[in-house]
Specification:
The protein has 4 helices and no strands. The protein is mainly alpha-helical. The longest helix has 16 residues, at 67-82.
Length: 83
């Protein structure tokens, strides 16, 4: 399963059953899907699911506020690891 699929499934299982209808560019915080505590739980899931460590400076909306943002963040993170 791809990044967006895994994160969408996580959101569906832990936050809202309507995650399947979530657009890839929908703001998770802006739409009230995830709050600040939920973001920390999402980050913990991303770290576990993808075997990465998210630094404090990386905990910004640009990296975690939508499915597209999470996928882009992981692609950049992987590129740095292999680069």
């Amino acid at each position: 399963m791809d990044v967006k699929g895994l994160v969408r499934r996580y959101i569906g299982e832990t936050v809202t059953q309507e995650a399947e209808d979530l657009a890839d560019n929908s703001s998770l915080m802006g739409q009230g899907i995830i709050d600040s505590a939920g973001i920390l739980e999402l980050v913990a899931f991303v770290e576990d699911a993808f075997g990465i460590r998210v630094g404090d400076s990386e905990l910004v909306p640009e990296n975690f506020d939508s499915l597209n943002a999470i996928q882009s963040y992981l692609e950049r993170k992987r590129a740095l690891a292999t680069g």
